[in-house]
Amino acid sequence: MNQFKEWGFSAQWWRGEKGEYWVFAQVILFVGFMLLPVYPAIALDNLSPIWKYADWGITGIFGLVALLLLLSGSIKLGTNLTPLPHPKDDGELVTGGVYALVRHPIYSGVIFLAIAYSCWEISLSHAIGAIVLLLFFDIKARKEESWLSSKFADYDQYRSQVKKLIPWIY
């Protein structure tokens, strides 16, 4: 229970004042994504080996990007890290490192990991799941950014200079 308190969960978490419901919804989406059946978009048996190798390469690239975003984002946040979209009361605004490339690298890492898995399986259902995760994190990031703007005076300037979820794109 101390870990939840350290992350910023309130004693009355059921009120959702710090975004606790977003965390619960995120867990449900993760479990749902993992339980999705694999519906191959194309038959792998009919592909030439070059396409299989290309798929492995694309999967590796997305997986590596996901790993880099997740690890560097988590490390750079340090004690500011919380699963809640609400910033910690004693938190500081982090804008350096990977946060100079994307405002929400951990969310981005999860999205890229979902894309990597859908590429690995060439699964249409998982590709749709990755899109659902992208939409969910986009909405969660909007809520988080409203709290960050209220807490940190220079957040709006940072937001205007750095992309939200996909480096250099969005």
TrEMBL record:
One of its GO terms (biological process) is methylation. Gene3D superfamilies: 1.20.120.1630. It is a multi-pass membrane protein. InterPro entries: Phopholipid_MeTrfase (IPR007318). It is found in: Endomembrane system. It is an enzyme of class 2 (transferase). Its main location: membrane. PANTHER family: PROTEIN-S ISOPRENYLCYSTEINE O-METHYLTRANSFERASE, SLR1182 PROTEIN. This is Isoprenylcysteine carboxylmethyltransferase family protein.
